[in-house]
Write a structure and sequence with these properties.
Elements: H1 2-70, E1 75-81, E2 86-90, H2 115-130, E3 137-141, E4 144-154, E5 160-169, H3 171-224, H4 231-255, E6 263-266, H5 268-274, H6 276-282, E7 287-292, E8 299-303, H7 304-325, H8 340-350, E9 352-363, H9 365-371, E10 380-389, H10 396-399, H11 417-427, E11 431-436, E12 442-451, E13 472-476, H12 480-493, E14 496-500, H13 503-512, E15 517-523, H14 531-541, E16 547-551, H15 555-562, E17 569-572, H16 577-588
Parallel strand pairs: 7-9, 13-14, 13-15, 15-16, 16-17
Antiparallel strand pairs: 1-2, 1-5, 3-4, 4-5, 6-8, 8-12, 9-10, 10-12, 11-12
Length: 590
């Protein structure tokens, strides 16, 4: 009985132990599960926090990128998926093109641009998605010019998943580049014309010495011949041709900006009206000249002869352009009909119009720099002279050449007209602009500084009578033909002439004959000693001796450069006998 009780107690104890062990296991498992759950919860919490942080970083990054794209000052960025739907479209260049971010993002390309733009952009995006787009392409959208850089966007597997277009608005850049190029071309043109001007001026100066001898000897020969001698016609022809050659030299000097000028206030309108008869004779019959002259204009300080040359050259040039316009394609004038009236009407119908106008304009510094970059012109009022024709016009290449000396679009002619106009305008501190297109005619505009002075009236030249009374004249010139011409002419008047071919020899002669020398004539350009230095040394030897400076350049240039020399008079080469007498008389007047 006791054994049965012991066995039952043993079994009960074992069951209790098992239950206790089970309870402990369950409790341990519960604690482990709780620990796992706590760890999983902590991990989840960390993951949530990391995702939140990543989202914040992503949002901040997107915000920064959006800010950068939105403030892309001269461009825009476009991103489209493979269905050509805008994912991103932003940048300041959208607004000038009439586009917006809200109007593009999330929408298909075909729904956002006009059909003609779609036809141009769709192949470019397709090529970008295929990886075959060019490196860059220029696109004009409205009045704006863009340079687009296509960029394929690749995914993790290196496949192209989107197309990005970086678009730069280069409208202003191209405008500035074009303006810089235009200014550079004008500067190069001005420098080239200046170089050619120096060459033309040097040639003209040497040529003037030869013309001085030809004209002087011809006029002496004319005086020696009987009034009705048959040889007078030959001499007259020599004088006429020499004066024409002198006119050609004046044009060369005018082109060089060193023409002989006599500045005084002039009424530009009155000068144009005074040329009316001459213009009617010079302009072709099929060209009709219309005048639109301002009612009132201030004076311009200019040389009357050179101003007339500007007017004549530009109007005659316009007439010739219209004449070419009325010719057949082979270069010959179209034939008239049998009926004279019909022929005249046909010429009038085929003819053109020349519009001549004047106006007063106020030019600011910016406008002057645009019209004549690199030149110094004072801002203020300018008198504008315009000549427009309805002739054949010129292409851009021809326009760049028309101011070159000896360039001409005609079959004949020396081609100095427009070159001389350019030089005259430059020497008067003015501006010259030409606009022309083939078959659209040509317009020349000239601006000259306006003056507050009242226009002058031309005075008759003074008498050239002179009383020599056997006084001695010292002539210093390195050109023998000039010295001989002056010697014979002055001796004919009654002077005793001593000649020197250089400064040193002339100074020595003055030292020997200081008392009897009444006048010295000095050429400004000599190889051994410059003329200004010769004059200074002459005045040291005899301070009261009158001096006449001789040069092929204009008096104003000589006065501006050598005004401090105190010379008495100026003689421009070539000169006639009357001009020589007048200058000598002026120099010897008490």
């Amino acid at each position: 009985m006791e054994r049965e009780l012991d066995f039952g107690a043993l079994v009960g104890g074992l069951v209790a132990l098992a239950l206790a062990i089970l309870a402990l296991w369950l409790r341990a498992r519960e604690r482990a599960r709780a620990a796992e759950l706590a760890e999983a919860n902590a991990a989840l919490k960390r993951e949530v926090e990391e995702r939140q942080h990543a989202e914040e970083v992503l949002r901040a990054s997107e915000a920064r990128l959006r800010t950068l794209v939105s403030n892309f000052s001269n461009g825009a960025i476009f991103l489209v998926d493979r269905d050509l739907r805008y994912l991103v479209a932003d940048g300041r260049a959208l607004h000038p093109a009439g586009l917006s971010r809200q109007g593009l993002e999330g929408k298909a390309l075909i729904d956002t641009v006009p059909p003609e733009e779609y036809e141009r952009l769709e192949p470019l995006y397709r090529a970008t998605l295929a990886g075959t787009a060019p490196e860059k392409i220029e696109i004009r959208y409205g009045d704006r010019l863009y340079v687009d850089y296509p960029v394929p966007v690749r995914g993790d597997g290196d496949e192209i998943i989107a197309a990005m277009m970086i678009s730069l608005d280069v409208t202003e850049v191209r405008r500035v580049e074009e303006e810089r190029r235009r200014i550079q071309e004008k500067l190069e043109e001005a420098q080239r014309l200046e170089s050619l001007g120096v060459l033309a001026g040097g040639i003209a100066h040497d040529f003037n010495n030869m013309l001085t001898a030809i004209l002087g000897h011809a006029e002496l020969l004319r005086q020696d011949l009987p009034a009705h001698a048959t040889e007078q016609e030959n001499v007259d022809a020599i004088v006429t041709v020499t004066k024409r050659a002198s006119d050609l030299v004046k044009q060369m000097l005018a082109y060089a900006g060193k023409g002989r000028i006599s500045l005084r206030p002039l009424d530009f309108n009155a000068l144009i009206r005074d040329l009316g008869e001459l213009l009617r004779a010079s302009v072709a019959k099929h060209a009709r000249v219309q005048y639109e002259l301002a009612d009132t204009l201030p004076a311009v300080v200019a040389d009357a002869a050179q101003l007339r040359q500007i007017v004549m050259n530009l109007i005659v040039n316009a007439s010739e352009a219209i004449e070419a316009h009325t010719s057949g394609e082979d270069g010959h004038d179209a034939k008239e009909g049998d009926d004279a009236r019909e022929g005249e009407a046909s010429r009038t119908a085929r003819g053109g119009t020349i519009l001549v106008s004047t106006a007063l304009e106020s030019l600011e510094s910016s406008t002057l720099e645009r019209l004549a970059p690199g030149t110094e012109r004072a801002p203020g009022p300018y008198v504008k002279f315009t000549v427009s024709d309805s002739g054949t016009g010129m292409d851009a290449e021809t326009v760049t050449k028309i101011f070159q000396p000896f360039f001409s679009t005609k079959f004949v002619g020396r081609g100095l007209g427009l070159a001389a106009v350019h030089g005259i305008v430059q020497s008067h501190q003015g501006l010259l602009l030409v606009e022309s297109e083939p078959k659209q005619g040509t317009t020349f505009r000239v601006w000259l500084p306006a003056s507050e002075l009242r226009p002058d009236e031309e005075l008759p030249p003074p008498s050239a009578a002179i009383a020599a009374r056997q006084r001695t004249v010292l002539v210093i010139d390195d050109e023998e033909v000039v010295r001989v011409t002056l010697q014979r002419t002055l001796e004919r008047i009654g002077f005793v002439v001593r000649m020197a071919e250089g400064g040193e020899e002339g100074l020595a002669m003055l030292q020997e004959d200081r008392q009897d020398t009444a006048l010295a004539m000095v050429d400004l350009t000599m190889p051994d000693m410059p003329g200004d230095h010769v004059v200074r040394e002459l005045l040291k030897v005899k301070p009261d001796v009158p001096v006449i400076l001789m040069s092929g350049y204009c008096e104003e240039d000589v006065t501006a450069r050598y005004g401090e020399l105190g010379h008495t008079a100026f003689l421009h080469k070539p000169f006639s006998l009357d001009e020589l007498r007048t200058v000598v008389r002026t120099a010897l007047e008490p």
